[in-house]
Write a structure and sequence with these properties.
The complex is a heterooctamer, with two copies of chain A (188 residues), two copies of chain B (80 residues), two copies of chain C (271 residues) and two copies of chain D (383 residues). Chain A is α/β, with parallel strands linked by helices. Chain A contains six helices and six strands; from the N terminus they run βαβββαββαααα. In chain A, strand 4, helix 2 and strand 5 form a beta-alpha-beta unit. Chain B has a domain of 54 residues: Alpha-Beta Plaits. Chain B contains two helices and four strands; from the N terminus they run βαββαβ. Chain B is globular, with a radius of gyration of 13 Å. The two termini of chain B are 20 Å apart. In chain C, 37% of the residues lie in helices and 17% in strands. Chain C has an eight-stranded mixed β-sheet with strand order 2-1-3-4-6-5-8-7, sandwiched between helices. Chain D is α/β, with parallel strands linked by helices and 383 residues long. Chain D folds into two domains: 176 residues, Thiamin diphosphate (ThDP)-binding fold, Pyr/PP domains (Rossmann fold); 112 residues, 3-Layer(aba) Sandwich (Rossmann fold), CATH 3.40.50. Chain D starts with 5 loop residues before the first strand and ends with a helix. Classes of the chains: A alpha/beta (188), B alpha+beta (80), C alpha/beta (271), D alpha/beta (383). Chains in contact: A-C, A-E, B-C, C-D, C-E, C-F, D-E, D-F, D-G, E-F, F-G, F-H. Bound molecules: thiamine diphosphate (TPP) (2 copies), iron/sulfur cluster (SF4) (6 copies) and magnesium ion (2 copies). Chains A, G: Pfam families: POR. Chains A, G: It comes from Desulforamulus putei DSM 12395. Chains A, G: InterPro entries: 2-oxoglutarate_synth_KorC, Pyrv/ketoisovalerate_OxRed_cat, Pyrv_flavodox_OxRed_cen.
């Protein structure tokens, strides 16, 4: 479909990917787009590989699942192996540099970014890795505007954690921008 | 075979074990063993891996093995 | 894990699916230690469970194992035990499984005094479905369906079991592993319905909503709040208010159901 | 059991048939009009080395039956509508885990409490579709006391052979009716026993079988140490969420039934060859139909009767043949038209299909059916 | 509720739609994938003056809903397959005693425990036939988050108008999906309130109504002092075993639904006029069908889509019309072919009817449907 | 019948369907006497019953009456009471209805301490279905499904209710009519879950199988075996063995469920 | 149907009519006949009107209910009013002379016999009125042989009550024979 | 109307009632009243009808009315 982005966010159960998907979707709504968000759970959504998917489009969205991602995020090894498959040619793929060692063969443009490390070292909470990732993803793809994603984020996070989250998002934006400017992680 | 054991091993004060072995494939990094080791033997390492940081301090009390919910710790007793 | 008890696990199924730090693994550990000490025949021992996180336990144990429907473990187990009384039958069930949807089967199994050793994994919450309050959730606690704090009072499960007719009732925690192992042994030895309530910790669905800290913190809470009957006796009412007793709570004699039926059969067979 | 003729009640024939088939475990909860089955078995089972237990409700009864069956004992429960509704979740469990057992539903007038003592056949569709999710099921229905005995034996044979719960769908008329019958001697009717694995524990996969077969079943307590669950599982019995495995296992569950229709489906068909109109009926209603058909024949009308003993899977082929031959079909049942729907589907427009339906709590009278026969015979469009 | 677009989950839309419709009593027992409905209502109901209670099981939940409804409060429960099976007895009670309420079933993969988080549509027939005895029932099924809100409101309107339990049959896809929607402002959707008697206590017969109508319903506690039972009853509400009264009352129960199909049945039909092939689908599957039909049209195939929002009573007339026009029908659903049976029946041989069925725990992909469309379009016999 | 209580009956439904001499009529008599003394508003009082002989009681009483499904009366009643707490809700249920299929709803209603006055017609049998043993049938008694004598032990219903959380528990018999009337009054006044167990007689399905004699003989049996707590205290263990206590058995304070919820609503309404 | 007898026994719940029906059916089996026996219950089979039906035939019996009785027995007023309707012309109808006052219009040959009174006064137990009735019915109709009904009765009754039951049956036979010999209760 | 009654009539020792009235339409002849009347007032009559055989012995104790499961006995108090 024209003007449609299929986004797949994946990682382990506790990494907050559904929340990231929701924020991304809400940012797209602020931008005036149509959007559908879905997820898939493991046996009890603990550990392992889980995913959240977002489709963003100017058109009405019929089929709600992502078949062939335009954008892929993989925050742990298992989810990359399980869910990266099927990316479109030249899709954008972002993986956690610290937690992912192997990448399946793909024609995607792959960026390995220190997402979790940034969250742990620069924000002090690994928990916000999802937000860092969201920043990086927005910056690299331009799929949602910086303002919208910031607004959407701040609406969703618990009171008292706004600053921490804003910081995580900024760090993510920076990671993304640096990556855009710098070296691409190479095709393989 | 429990049936050949007269007294339960875990209830007998043990010899100083040769090693505390962590099965990293099963460990879920919950931190219980670290919190309950009174001797500071265990610690989180890189990427929250549980490491036997101070093996020499271990007194073989077995608390870590006892409380590990994932059977990821073994006290391997030295052959006598 | 002690090498001599590995035989009771389906090792290829490990690590189990429970969350990091979940107490269920500790309960299972104590169960197999007890079975080992009891020298039970692994081929003639059956584990029956319902549905829930705790109920997944049956899948990790190397016996004939029966993972049933939510709340019905005791009813299925009644069928197994009554049909073949020579089998050792353990029932592994969560607090929701046993006391919410399964409450009726619980009181009736106790009333019949059928020889089932029932281990209730009491984590005070519906863990599997993501943290709704259970009939064992303390008053005022938070859960996803009690966002303003739980209005209900929990059961005193031990008292309920005693009133219903259980002939052995004990309570331990995942901290009190030695006691738990011993209670399971004693419960098994009782020729009748035995309840062993294990206070276990669910860091994911209960701990998080109620600011209980890390899994280790939750274990420490158990250590600090579970006391022996003797110690309990000597506490002041204020001190008692947040404590619970760990150990054997009740023991009595009564005819066991399957044995009674066997007598009947002997009497009327061929008539 | 002697070969003397005896006066036997339908419910008694069910109880005795079950014992004949080797049933040695019954768990139930009393409910009219099925209660006599429990009462007779409470007395009889201890005499034949079997077990009877009255559980706290129907849910527990169904659960206990499944548990008992896993130990290798042929097991049964009996109930009526309200209890049948309650058993549905665990009937689904038995389908999924492939546990042989027999569930008797002596139908009464519903919905809800309805009229406990009134005849009806309102649970035909529920017997097929009562539990959630897609599941195959075998449903048998008798028309006489003798047939109740025979179909009870068959129900156990099919349950054991295909590792499924089999529903014996009786109705108040047949359950409470007494008839003169000569109960079969041991050996007279075939009795099928469960297939057990003959491999070692290591080689045993409790859910491994050909694409259309039920796997051999080890008994609990005999050293196979396997796992049984109501979750989707692979051949080893352990839970899986792999789409291809789910697909395979569910397909096998269906195939083991639908690829063996010849073994499963029986029906009674009389005077259909020359018939212009065939009355399709079952259970108590079929008794009134017999009379009505006789009277119609006396009037010179070419009328036949088709009486499925297997309601589900529906004898689709046989009925399609009647429809294809352009015979008018009249479905007589004590409900609002349940089997009628299936007959309409199978007829696929090839012949006129009409219902003779009654839901007032009384057995349909032969006259009512005869009148309908006359009406359809004369006026329904032929082909 | 604002007219701002929001990201809303299907289960949330159900909860909010219920509140919009005036629902102020919820009783439930958690089960995946319906649990969010309960969780949201636990929070929201006290805020709007409503009541939320978590019962000890699904049976009790259904019972409490009926009890609450009798006091005049619009009431609801939500569950999934295993819980839906357990509720059946009391759903039948609500049918019989004519108690308005809404029962949500967010379907998951069965039978039995199945896979709790996997999408499926295996409860379509159970929703129609799950309780014992003959009973009419209304079943609605949404395909999008917005429609979930709207059909929840409709479910309450129909329940209140016809004094019946209405089943809102969702599936995991729609229940867990989040979409951008603008929730309706108060007043935007019609909200129907229960008809109360305007006569005196002496003149009130709680079950007296025209042959095809639901009677006005007095609230408990307002002085009418009437009797409610699940036994067959006469117009006064008291038990009866009189065949003619039973017949009359049961007929009215059916007529009040089947004589008002125009008010009850809605469907969505797109590009069917010129279509040679019409895909019939509903719920989550219909989303994949939409895509597939677009692709098929791009390939030049004349394909349309027919999507019932009312599953039961089935839109028989509309489908018969398609069949009569000789269009090929393809039924796409996530089960072994349930609605397919009804479509076959209604088509009555007038056109080719094929199924595109999937039961592996995954939402059918548009490609799968497209391939089936191509196959049927090319090869199925025309008329 | 006293003319002043006729107003509580649906006179046109009398004579009731119960067998000659059945105790149920006496229970109902006491109930309406209690209601009369309590001056309850007939228009704001609801009777909820399950299925069984006893449960037919609702049909004879001139209130809003709800005859539900077997075992579920308390769950329906919970809906009625929680939705409209200002109504007085009585639950009329048999021993089978309440303690067999309905056991779970019973312990949960008690645990929630919801303000329902529950009267259990305990005739020790499933009367309606023709005399199968119930969870209240004494051990060794005969019933159609215990042709060789009942192997099971009955519940002590009062103890079960207390353990589950009931805040008022009393017991009377159809012989002790004055006490029964008073217990119903006291039970109603308790703001919480109240159980009144009535030992009643079923000459048809229990008496006949167990050679209990005429209805009058069964009443006399009650007279001779039901004793006050005070008298019971003074009996020897042997004397006690076949006696049971009549009167108030338990009373305590606990928050009532619907009231707690109302507080919650007041706090969060409009938020 | 040729050679087919349709028998309807009616009375109140406690009068033992089902047992009478069973004994009659078993007697017919001893006589080598085919037989079907059914009954209908009231709300809980207590008091009121209940009935047991027996069809006796040389042929196979299809429809198991009695449509138009050849033989009718009515042991209380309510059951006579409810169930006597439909008797064949010239059917045999026996009613309890003490308990039945009104008989609906019918073309049956009606005998009003002191059945319950005989049981009470001559056997000393009202309980055996059903057996008395059975005797009278057999004698009046000849539907089953005297020996068969006696055998069937003695197989069914509890040990220790054989003499009482035999006596009741004899008294019934006598009642029937006297009636045959004596006056018919008249058509009305 | 209970609400106007201050003390319960049945708890006040009554005047000797004018009559014990049996509602034959409701009476099921269970015999309870006869068994519990200490004064032998009631008895089974023809066809087991309950009859007031010795009305003069009645002391108005109300036991019969109290225990009748079918509300078939009324003690009709004479107008004062
Ligand atoms: C009939 C039915 N109702 C509801 C559910 C959903 N369900 C699964 S597990 C569970 C609760 C589990 O709680 P508990 O027994 O305490 O086990 P835990 O997960 O806490 O160990 C529920 C409600 C179900 N599977 N079946
Ligand atoms: C679900 C269901 N199961 C069983 C029955 C049949 N049934 C009706 S009443 C009853 C037992 C009644 O016993 P109890 O509650 O003690 O009442 P009683 O008749 O003794 O007063 C039973 C088993 C039913 N109606 N519904
Ligand atoms: S207790 Fe076990 S699972 Fe937890 S961190 Fe230690 S070794 Fe790992
Ligand atoms: S055995 Fe004891 S001392 Fe050694 S590591 Fe474990 S807990 Fe620490
Ligand atoms: S949710 Fe709770 S009980 Fe379930 S596995 Fe996780 S920690 Fe354990
Ligand atoms: S069967 Fe028993 S409980 Fe039922 S009405 Fe008769 S005497 Fe009463
Ligand atoms: S107690 Fe009542 S019903 Fe019984 S005999 Fe006396 S008046 Fe009649
Ligand atoms: S009032 Fe007393 S004395 Fe008079 S008839 Fe009744 S029981 Fe006998
Ligand atoms: Mg739990
Ligand atoms: Mg009872």
């Amino acid at each position: 479909m024209p003007g449609t982005w299929e986004v797949r966010l994946s990682g382990s159960g506790g990494q907050g990917l559904i929340l990231a998907g929701i924020i991304l979707a809400e940012a797209a709504i602020i931008d005036g787009q149509n959007v559908v968000q879905t997820q898939s759970y493991g046996p009890a959504a603990r550990g392992g590989a889980s995913k959240a998917e977002v489709i963003i489009s100017q058109e009405e969205i019929d089929y709600p699942k992502v078949d062939r991602p335009d954008i892929f995020l993989g925050l742990n090894q298992e989810s990359v192996l399980k869910y990266m498959d099927g990316c479109k040619d030249n899709a954008l793929a972002i993986v956690d540099a610290g937690l992912v060692n192997h990448i399946p063969p793909s024609k995607a443009r792959v960026y390995a970014l220190p997402i979790t490390e940034t969250a742990r070292k620069q924000v002090g909470r690994e928990l916000v890795a999802n937000v860092v990732a969201l920043g990086a993803l927005s910056a690299l793809s331009g799929i949602v505007s910086r303002e919208s994603v910031t607004t959407a984020l701040l609406r969703r996070v618990p009171k008292g954690t706004e600053d921490m989250n804003r910081k995580a998002l900024e760090l993510g934006f920076n990671l993304g921008e640096q990556a855009l400017a710098g070296a691409q992680a190479g095709h393989n | 075979m429990g049936c050949n054991i007269v007294t339960d091993l875990s209830s007998v004060p043990r010899l100083r074990p040769a090693a505390v072995v962590i099965n990293q494939a099963w460990c879920k990094k919950c931190g219980i063993c670290i919190a309950f080791c009174n001797k500071g033997v265990l610690a989180f390492g890189e990427g929250n891996r549980v490491e036997v940081a101070q093996p020499e301090n271990c007194v073989g009390c077995g608390l870590c093995e006892n409380f590990c919910p994932d059977y990821a710790i073994n006290l391997e007793v030295a052959d006598q | 894990m002690l090498p001599e008890i590995e035989q009771y696990f389906r090792l290829e199924k490990l690590p189990h699916m429970w969350c990091p730090g979940c107490g269920n693994g500790i309960v299972l550990h104590c169960l197999v230690k007890a079975i080992d000490k009891l020298c039970l025949d692994q081929d003639r021992t059956v584990m029956v469970s319902g549905i829930g996180c705790a109920a997944r336990a049956s899948g990790y144990l190397d016996f004939d194992t029966l993972h049933t429907t939510h709340g019905r473990a005791l009813a299925f187990a009644t069928g197994v035990k009554f049909a073949k009384p020579e089998l050792n039958v353990f029932v592994l069930t969560g607090d929701g499984d046993c006391t919410a949807i399964g409450g009726n089967h619980f009181i009736h199994a106790a009333r019949r005094n059928i020889n089932l050793t029932t281990i209730v994994f009491n984590n005070n919450i519906y863990g599997m479905t993501g943290g709704q309050y259970s009939p064992m959730t303390p008053n005022a606690c938070r859960a996803t369906t009690s966002p303003y704090g739980n209005l209900e009072r929990p059961f005193n499960l031990a008292e309920l079991a005693i009133a219903a007719g259980a002939t052995f009732v004990g309570r331990a925690t995942t901290y009190h592993t030695k006691q738990l192992t011993d209670l399971i042994i004693e419960g098994y030895k009782n020729n009748g319905f035995s309840l062993i309530e294990v206070v276990t910790h669910c860091p994911t669905s209960f701990g998080r909503h109620n600011k209980m800290g890390s899994p280790a913190d939750m274990l420490k809470w158990q250590r600090d709040h579970g006391v022996t009957a003797m110690r309990y006796e000597n506490l002041s009412p204020e001190e008692r208010s947040d404590k619970f007793i760990v150990g054997v709570l009740h023991r009595c004699e009564a005819p066991e159901y399957t044995a009674e039926y066997q007598k009947l059969q002997e009497k009327f067979r061929g008539r | 059991m002697s070969s003397e003729p005896r006066l036997v009640q339908g419910n008694e024939a069910c109880a005795e048939g079950a014992i004949y088939a080797g049933m040695r475990f019954y768990a139930g909860y009393p409910i009219t009009p099925s209660t006599e089955i429990a009462e007779i078995l409470a007395k009889r089972l201890p005499q034949v080395g079997g077990k009877f237990i009255q559980m706290e409700d129907e849910i527990a009864s169904m659960a206990a039956v499944v548990g008992a069956s896993l130990t290798g004992v042929k097991s049964m429960t009996a109930t009526s509508g309200p209890g049948f509704s309650l058993k549905q979740e665990n009937i689904g469990y038995a389908c999924m885990a492939e546990i042989p057992c027999v569930v008797v539903n002596v139908q009464r007038l519903g919905p809800s409490t309805g009229v406990a003592t009134a005849p009806a056949q309102g649970d035909v569709m529920q017997a097929r579709w009562g539990t959630h999710g897609d599941h195959p099921i075998i449903v048998l229905t008798p028309s006489s006391v003798k047939e109740t005995f025979e179909l009870t034996v068959r129900a156990f044979n099919l349950a054991e052979k295909f590792r499924v719960p089999v529903i014996l769908l009786m109705d108040e008329v047949v359950g409470h009716m007494r008839e003169k019958v000569i109960l079969p001697e041991p050996g007279e009717l075939p009795v099928y026993d469960r297939l057990k694995p003959n491999c070692s524990r290591e080689d045993y996969y409790p859910y491994r079988a050909d694409w259309d077969k039920a796997p051999p079943m080890a008994f609990f307590g005999e050293g196979y140490r396997y796992h049984v669950t109501g979750l989707f599982h692979d051949e080893s019995g352990f839970a899986t969420e792999k789409p291809e495995v789910i697909d395979l296992q569910l397909r096998r569950l269906h195939n083991k039934i639908y690829r063996h229709l010849d073994e499963i489906i029986t029906y009674h068909s009389e005077q259909t060859e020359d018939a212009e109109l065939v009355v399709i009926s079952y259970g108590g209603t079929a008794r009134a139909v017999s009379r009505a058909v006789k009277l119609a024949r006396q009037e010179g009308r070419k009328v036949g009767i088709f009486r499925p003993q297997t309601l589900w899977p529906f004898p689709e082929e046989a009925v399609a043949e009647l429809a294809g031959a352009g015979k008018k079909l009249l479905v007589a049942e004590m409900n609002y038209g349940q089997l009628l729907l299936e007959v309409q589907r199978v007829a696929a427009g090839r012949c006129a299909v009409t219902g003779c339906l009654q839901t007032n709590g009384e057995l349909t009278q032969p006259e009512t059916i005869l009148n309908k026969i006359r009406e359809v015979y004369e006026h329904a469009p032929g082909n």
